[in-house]
Structures are given as C-alpha cells and as structure tokens.
Amino acid sequence: MKTNRRNFLKHTTAFGAAAALGPSMIASPARASGEIEVGVLFSLTGGLSIIEKSLADATMMAIDEINAAGGVNGMMIKPILEDGASDPKTYNEKASKLVIRDRLQTVFGSYTSASRKAVLPVFEKRNSMYFYPTYYEGFECSKNVVYTGAVPNQQLSNFIPWIINTLGKKKFFIVGSNYIYPREMAKVSKILIEQNGGEWIADEYLELGHSEWGAMVSKIKESGCDVVLSNVVGDSVVAFYREFKNQGLTHDKLPICATVTSEIEIAAMGPEFAVGSYTSFPYFQAIDTDRNRDFVERYRKYVNDPKAVTHHALESSYFQVYLWKQAVEKAGDISADAVREGIKGQVFEAPNGTVTVDPENLHTYLTPRIAQWGADGQGTIVDEYPAPTEPLPYVAYGETPDNLFCTGAGLDTSKL
Amino acid sequence: MSDIIFIGLSLSSILLLIALGLSITYGAMGVINMAHGELVMIGAYTAVLAGLHLGLNLFFALPLAFVTSGLVGLVIERLVIRRLYGRIIDTLLATWGVAILLQQLIRLEFGLSFFGIHIDGLGPGLQNMTVPAFLTQPIDVAGMTIQPYRTFIIVVTLLLAGLTWWLMYRTPMGVQVRAIMRNPQIAAACGIDVRRVSALTFAYGSGLAGIAGVLLAGFKTVMPEMGASVVVDGFLVVVVGGVGSLLGTILAAGILGQINGIVALLSNDIIARAVVFAVVIALILWRPRGLFSFKSR
C-alpha cells in the first residue's frame, strides 16, 4: 500500500492517534500474519437468507477447498463472515466494518441489486474489491466490483431467438415484478423480440412479493399471446405458476419462459406446477458433466444435506473465489489494485464450463443455456451456446461487442 | 363478464377469509391483534407438516389447523392479551412482539436448530402444500371454465361466515359475546363469565385464521414472513366494514375485492391496489366508523 498524503489522511481519520506510530502499524494485518483475510457478506437472517445462506455456504466451501489444497501462494485464506440481514442499510454498515475496521481488500457478497448498490460507495471510496455472484440487470460499471453472474444479454440473447425459431412462438406477454431488474430485462427482451421478427403484446408488472395472480393470469389468458416471458422474482414466482395451472393454462400450449425461476423456486412451488416450462441461465444443477456432478456432490456433503440443490448464483459464488485466488497468484499481491489487474482475463474451469473475466468491464464470459423443467424439479438442458458469451452490461442501451460502453477506463457516458 | 365477477369474488373471499377472524378478535374484542397474520402462518405450516409427516391432505388439514391456531390463540390470550383488555394501543405493541416471536419459533424450528435437529417442513426455507389434483384441474361447464380451488375457497369462506353468524346470533354463547362487546362490566354483573367467554372468542377468531392459512397455502408460498402482508388487508376490511359488524365485514370484503378485480383487469394490479386504498380512505372519511357500526366498548 502506498502511503501518500491522501491515504495518510484516511488512516488518520480511521485510526486517530494510532496512525502517528507510522505506516508499518497501519498496513493490512493480513499480510503480516501469513494468512489472507477476506470478507464474506451475505444475509444469514431475514427473508433473503433462504437463498443467501446457500451462497455463503458455496463461498465458504471454495475457501475451505483452496485452504485444503495449500492456500493462495502458501497463505491460508481466513474468511470473516458478516450478516447483511436482508437489509441494504445493514449491508452498508457491515461492508464499512469489513473494509474500514478489518481493512479487507476483498469481499465476496450480495444477492440483490439493492444490497450491491448499498455497499458500492464503500468499496469505491475505500478502493476495495467486491465480488458479486448474482445475475443482475446490468447498467453498472464499477472498477471495484467483479461481476460473476449473468447480465441480460447472457440470459436473453440466446433465449428470445430460440423461443421464436425453435418453439415457434411469436407473441410475447412480458410479465415481471415491479423494480429495476425485471424492467431492464423487459427492455432488452423487446429489442431482441423485434430484431427476431416477433412481437410483444403486453408488458405488465406486479409489486414485489405480490401473491394474488388471479387478474394477471386471466389477462394472459385473454391476451392471445402464445408465450409468457417471466421476470417475476421471489415468492411471487410460486403464486404465479400455481395460479397459471389453476386457471387451466398448460406449458405445452402456452409455456412460461423465465429468467429468474431457478431450482430453488421450483422446489418451493412443487415441481408439478412447472413441468414443461423453460428457464434461461448459464448454470443448472442438471448440467451433465463430471465436473458439475462432482461439484453438486461436494456441495451436498459440505452442507450435510443430501437433497440440497445448486443454482446459478450459488455456482458463481463458488467459482469467483477461485478467480480471485488466481488473480492474487498472478499479481503476487492481495491489494485491491493488484487483484483488479490480476483478475483481468482470468480463466477458470467452473462447474458450468469455462469462465473468463472480461478485461474491460470486469464482468464474466458465461455460456447461456436453456432448460426445460421436469417432474423431479430438475431441468433438462435443451439448448446450449457453443461458446461463452461476452458480457454486455449496457446492451439495453445499444452496447455491442464492437462498441463497448464500459471499459477499463470507466463508463463512457456520452454513449448512453 | 362472468370471468371478471369470478375474479372479484375470489379476491373478496380471500379478504373475507382473513378478515373474518379479525372481525372477531379486533371487531368484537377490541384487540388490535398484529399476530393475526402469524396465526394464519401457523395454519399454513400445520397443513405443510400434516402433509409431510402424517400424509394428511387439505381436507384433514383444515380442522387440524383450526385447532392448532385456536390453541395458540388461547395461549396468547391467557399469557398476554388477558392483561391488556381496554388498552388498545398496548395490545398493538404486545401482539406485534408475539408476532415476531412466532415467526422466529418457526424459523428456528422451536429452537431445535440450535441443537442441530432439523424438522422437515420448518425452518427459514420456502415450503409448499400439496393440493389434491382434482382441485387444480379446471372444469368446463356450459362454456364457462370453473376453477375448482377458487370455488372451494369461496364455498369454505361462505360456510365459515354462515357458521360465525350462527354462533354469534343464534347461540347462548353468541349472546354473551355480544353482551361483552357492548359493555363488559354490565355483562359481568349479569353473571357472564367475561374471562372465559373472551378467551374462547379469541381462540375461535384465531382458529379461523388457521383455516385461512391452509387455504392460502394452496396458492402462496409458505414461509415464516407470509403473515405480515395479509394482516394489513384484514384490517382494511374490518375497518371499512365497521368494527364489530359481521355483515359490514362481509360487505366490505365483497366491495374491495370486486373493485380490486375490475381495476386490475382494466389496467393493472398496481393501480388496482392504489384504487383500493383510495376507496378505503374515502370510505373512512365519509363514514369514520365504517359502513355498519354501533356503539361498543
């Protein structure tokens, strides 16, 4: 860590009189002791803990595996686990604690965009790195976040053409929860639907957590659409699929094609309500490779639950620890600046296949897949991209591989 | 047209289902029972657990949930509410605390999770209740699609409303309850065991919440937080209908459900919810004591 005047002032505010003892006292404690401290910040309590607990478990499993195999450059990883309590404000406080008091250079965490947005200022101001494992809406370009989940083009650029060309469905009814993620997804969907010669006949939203779907499903039924594109999030998903069946709609005639419905939601609703519907994600538990089967088995053993399910954000939580490890090994240093430089272009063989961190926008190349849900609550992969797709967080605003909005230099706002 | 009315009707029936228990505990007894949603939640969990461990379906879960939630209600009455009659704001705070406690009990599996014991169907995760197949398959009758599960909810709700009316207006117990509603001191002076009748009334209202929970579990996720959102709707209905009036509660549920259904179909659910709140505000301004009201304690 450089001790320029700016940093010195920061330390003085943080440590008060301790700073007067000199720079050696304020250097990161992690480097002195031969172990590397990293933060793990997920909600272990509250409504989101159902999902975030599994992300924390996957992160801890990766850390334990790396430690068992000799650590990072011979140093053991020491995780500091904090609870975001499903509350963005708590997230912010815990992130401040990890970054300012524990002086951590890297933290793995967050499931929702709300919690990521809440901690972002802390990481940008203090220049630490945040590893974010969830699929999200894009429209963000931070030098302090490594995004290992899918962005809209990695869930939709294969999905929409496939629905139109393979399923032969052309009239879309778009439905989502009323907040930023579903709205951005709808924006990207509409561009893709029009490009591929389909049409969207409705774009409707329900409050987050809404569980009364009678009117909406009736509207879907009357609309004359032949496919439903669902960006519905959380426990609303369950009520939606159940009402869909109760009103006599079936997925063989009018399939729900979803971007959020994962193994977790399927288990929660009862698989019989989703049989025949589709979801697009880069990772499914059903991916039929030895590496993935092995991963699922190790995870189940780790959490001591023979029926535990794995899903996209969980898998990203796991492999992003390895990407970080490789970045540290390449840079030979654990500071945020070193990790940022080291992670650019890092390649890792993850359970879903080869993942690569984009050197420009720090998002991850992932392989889009489409699965059809079966009666056992597992998907059957019905379509898979031949190669990982480049992440384009600004695709809704016209970003293309030849015209990047978010580069290593930051966001080019003139292009928005 | 019949579709729109049916959706409104099914929305109304769910509102009424939740409000029915509240109209007893809040309406008749003047307890702002914030734990009402949690009693609904306990009913839903009873159905999940009965399905998982006892292999009982929905129909057996209904009476079981009535008893379970009723007993929990009885315990809450004995331990907390009994000491707070007539202190309406205190009941709000106390039952809110009870609500948090009940949520955590389910989430922590009655504390057993600290000892590494896991009960299938409890804990912080999402659960679901299996609905018998014949209730999920729509039937076509004379060109109209009938949704059996919604119809089932409407029928059960009407039966419960009828039963409640009968208990309140056609039995000696109901006379005592209504006497206590009007004036507990005079009722006691006339030889009514106010404590016992109040406890049983509260248990009955809680039991109704349990039944609501089972029916909600058929189309909602079952989770520890599920009760928090339904309790607001319940209070809306009871307040609009007039505190203490069963007929008012039924009418308010009908009106609000139909408005919600029609607006949701014409525009969307978010606007429908706003319109419902606007109507509630207007109604309360117009009739501060609700559609039907009489002087009570």
Describe the structure.
- The complex is a heterodimer of chains A (416) and B (297).
- Chain A is an alpha/beta fold and 416 residues long.
- Chain A contains 15 helices and 17 strands.
- Chain A starts with a helix and ends in a 5-residue tail after the last strand.
- Chain B has a single domain, classed as ABC transporter involved in vitamin B12 uptake, BtuC (Orthogonal Bundle).
- Chain B is 70% helix and 2% strand.
- Chain B has helices at residues 2-28, 36-54, 58-79, 88-107, 148-170, 172-182, 184-189, 194-217, 226-241, 246-266, 269-286; strands at residues 139-141, 144-146.
- Chain B has a two-stranded antiparallel ribbon with strand order 1-2.
- Chain B starts with a helix and ends in an 11-residue tail after the last helix.
Structure, briefly:
The complex is a heterodimer of chains A (416) and B (297). By secondary structure, chain A is α/β, with parallel strands linked by helices.
The CATH class label of chain B is Mainly Alpha
CATH superfamily of the largest domain in chain A: Response regulator
Please summarize the sheet with the most strands of chain A: 7 strands, mixed
Q: Level of helix content of chain B? A: 55-70%
What's the overall average pLDDT of chain A, rounded? 89
Write the layout of secondary structure elements.
The complex is a heterodimer of chains A (416) and B (297).
Chain A (H helix, E strand, L loop, with lengths): L4 H11 L7 H4 L2 H5 L1 E8 L6 H20 L7 E8 L4 H14 L4 E4 L3 H14 L2 E4 L12 E3 L4 H5 L2 H7 L5 E7 L2 H16 L3 E8 L7 H10 L3 E5 L4 H11 L9 E3 L4 H7 L8 E4 L8 H14 L8 H20 L4 H8 L3 E4 L2 E5 L6 E2 L3 E5 L5 E6 L21 E2 L2 E2 L5
Helix pairs in contact in A: 4-14, 5-6, 11-12, 14-15
Chain B lengths: L1 H27 L7 H19 L3 H22 L8 H20 L31 E3 L2 E3 L1 H23 L1 H11 L1 H6 L4 H24 L8 H16 L4 H21 L2 H18 L11
Antiparallel strand pairs in B: 1-2
Helix pairs in contact in B: 1-5, 1-8, 1-9, 1-10, 2-3, 2-4, 2-8, 2-9, 3-8, 5-6, 6-8, 9-10, 10-11
